[in-house]
């Protein structure tokens, strides 16, 4: 087929502009991105070859090769992975199909630093090549297609790209970067190797470069006809913990999570027994921009005996841990598992339970830190992901006690909107005669702390938790007790202050008698608007307040359901 020139999707043009300008200071990442794609391509080939081994053709040893040409001023990244057909090339390198793309673009602020951070989260990908190149040539052939169906794709990274069909014997993809003016420092074996070791050491297949040696006559390094592997070339999670540096764990996280920032913490272990698997789990430092998106990609990468099976295996994690990133490599699952099989597998259930326990232990460790730094880390974790974790109170009954210990609230005790009071802190401060944990729910912290329901508690010096997150009411509808103490809303009809009230009760009963005629009159006057009118002693400054009956929806929940159109 003749050469065709096509336009990039509008979003691609926008991303290209942005990326070249905002990420220039971190330009080395282009190599990480292209190597990561090559590695993905190898994973995909291995996966498809489970069903059809002829896809390996005569070239079963998967590898990535990086080379450069000083005279031509090019860098080349070559893989023998799955490759792309003509249609795949056009759609994968001309459009962004990722979920959350719209949302991503709507969040851009025009502020270079902020946008750079966002692009980092979005995943810069293939187009990052244009940070250092003013022209990129891609030559590729999909595994299984004939040599006559190779493809050449060329673009200067502006408005359009050209594609044509070529003859290509080799399966896989070769990417040639034609460097921009002034980028010649990248044309060095030493420089390329150090970038690869910095960002791509963990890649599971060998990254090859030609060896070089000093040529006395020419007075420069010359290439030898011999390969060397420049990375460790074994899947990071399969290596013993002691052999892995923090830096390597962090780089692996950045690759895995498409995040340009370091993770907050991680945990790595091998589980033996009925179900055998290795898990490497990370807590990110920041919530991704699409955490609240319905199609947010959640879950872990699943491998079976080192073979990549799928991204986002949401069956391996409960919803309320959807912020955790990582890898699970199972020794028991069949290689041909599908999402449907995962849903029913007993092995998967065992893994999910194990991963959940491990993730909670990791969070407990973070929460129990004694140092200021550790405390700040948990506070920052809570700000980013606390609302998600709280869903677990209503979702994971088996681990509810552990989750309850991790949860933090705002409270009348420290009078700030910051959620930093644990239920254990609250219980430790309870009055001797107090038997319940009191809370109030509202739309905002201001509204909660000014609630008339709180007056009697303030007067008696009893602490009340101030709950203002959307999930609180739902979580608390099934989470009703902590450490043997029932949780009680201060807005419930018959406020039972238990022993806190004893000495006043008698005096109140007397007042009650004298007020009876007035209450009867008010009942009559409000009979269409209020179910009941009662005398209360819970207010100190306000004349009256509305309450919900026990077992009835609270005002807050009613308003929320109304807002959601129910
Ligand atoms: P992502 O890797 O997050 O999907 P990229 O921008 O890095 O996004 O790549 C876009 C797509 O282009 C990939 O999903 C893949 O389908 C295709 N692609 C890129 N590089 C290669 C390659 N070396 N071999 C095969 N396909 C590739
Ligand atoms: Mg990529």
TrEMBL record:
Any one GO molecular-function label of the UniProt entry: ATP hydrolysis activity
Domain of life of the organism encoding this protein: Bacteria
Keyword ATP-binding: yes
Chief location of this protein within or outside the cell: cytoplasm
Residues the record lists as binding ATP: 33, 37, 79, 84, 99-100, 121-126, 173, 339
Transmembrane segments: none
Record's keyword terms, sorted: ATP-binding, Chaperone, Cytoplasm, Nucleotide-binding, Stress response
Keyword Chaperone attached: yes
InterPro entries reported in the protein's UniProt record: HATPase_C_sf (IPR036890), HATPase_dom (IPR003594), Heat_shock_protein_90_CS (IPR019805), HSP90_C (IPR037196), Hsp90_fam (IPR001404), Hsp90_N (IPR020575), Ribosomal_Su5_D2-typ_SF (IPR020568)
Domain Histidine kinase/HSP90-like ATPase, residue spans: 26-183
Subunit structure: Homodimer.
NCBIfam families registered for this protein in UniProt: PRK05218.1
UniProt record similarity statement: Belongs to the heat shock protein 90 family.
PANTHER family given in the database record: HEAT SHOCK PROTEIN 90 FAMILY MEMBER
Identification of the protein by name: Chaperone protein HtpG
Gene encoding the protein: htpG
């Amino acid at each position: 087929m003749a050469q065709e020139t096509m336009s990039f999707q509008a979003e691609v043009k926008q991303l290209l502009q942005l990326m070249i300008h905002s990420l220039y200071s971190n330009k080395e990442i282009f190599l990480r991105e292209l190597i990561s794609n090559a590695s993905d391509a190898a994973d995909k080939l291995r996966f498809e070859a489970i069903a059809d081994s002829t896809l390996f053709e005569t070239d079963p040893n998967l590898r990535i090769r990086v080379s450069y040409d000083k005279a031509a001023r090019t860098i080349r990244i070559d893989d023998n992975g799955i490759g792309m057909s003509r249609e795949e090339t056009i759609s994968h390198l001309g459009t962004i199909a990722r979920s959350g793309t719209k949302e991503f673009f709507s969040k851009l602020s025009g502020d270079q630093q902020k946008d750079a951070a966002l692009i980092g989260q979005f995943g810069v990908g293939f187009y990052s090549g244009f940070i250092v190149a003013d022209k990129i040539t891609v030559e590729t052939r999909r595994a299984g297609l004939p040599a006559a169906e190779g493809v050449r794709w060329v673009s200067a990274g502006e408005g359009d790209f050209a594609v044509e069909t070529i003859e290509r014997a080799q399966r896989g993809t070769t990417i040639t970067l034609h460097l921009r003016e002034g980028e010649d420092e990248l044309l060095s074996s030493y420089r390329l190797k150090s970038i690869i070791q910095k960002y791509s050491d963990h890649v599971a297949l060998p990254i090859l470069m030609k060896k070089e040696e000093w040529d006395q006559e020419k007075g420069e390094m010359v290439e030898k006809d011999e390969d060397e592997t420049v990375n460790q070339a074994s899947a990071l999670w399969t290596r013993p913990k002691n052999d892995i540096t923090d830096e390597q764990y962090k780089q692996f996280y950045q690759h895995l999570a498409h995040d340009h920032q370091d993770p907050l913490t991680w945990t790595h272990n091998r589980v033996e027994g009925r179900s055998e698997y290795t898990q490497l789990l990370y807590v990110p430092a920041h919530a991704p921009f699409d955490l609240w998106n319905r199609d947010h990609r959640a879950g872990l990468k699943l491998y079976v005996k080192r073979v990549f099976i799928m991204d986002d295996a949401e069956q391996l994690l409960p919803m309320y841990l959807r912020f955790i990133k990582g890898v699970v490599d199972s020794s028991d699952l069949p290689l041909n598992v599908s999402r449907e099989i995962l849903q029913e597998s007993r092995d998967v259930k065992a893994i999910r339970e194990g991963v959940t326990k491990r993730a909670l232990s990791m969070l407990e460790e973070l929460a129990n830190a004694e140092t200021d730094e550790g405390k700040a880390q948990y506070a920052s974790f809570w700000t980013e992901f606390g609302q998600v974790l709280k869903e677990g109170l209503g979702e994971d009954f088996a681990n509810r006690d552990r989750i309850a210990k991790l949860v933090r609230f705002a409270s009348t005790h420290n009078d700030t909107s910051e959620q930093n009071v644990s239920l254990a802190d609250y219980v430790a401060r309870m009055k001797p005669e107090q038997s319940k944990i009191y809370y109030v729910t509202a739309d905002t912290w201001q509204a909660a702390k000014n609630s008339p329901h709180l007056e009697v508690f303030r007067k008696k010096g009893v602490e009340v938790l101030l709950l203002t997150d959307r999930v609180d009411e739902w979580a608390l509808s099934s989470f009703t007790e902590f450490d043997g103490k029932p949780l009680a809303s201060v807005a419930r009809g018959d406020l039972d202050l238990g022993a806190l009230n004893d000495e006043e009760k008698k005096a109140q009963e007397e007042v009650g008698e004298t007020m009876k005629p007035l209450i009867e009159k008010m009942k009559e006057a409000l009979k269409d608007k209020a179910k009941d009118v009662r005398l209360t002693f819970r207010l100190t400054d306000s004349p009256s307040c509305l309450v919900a009956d026990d077992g009835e929806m609270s005002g807050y929940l009613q308003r929320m359901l109304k807002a959601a159109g129910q």
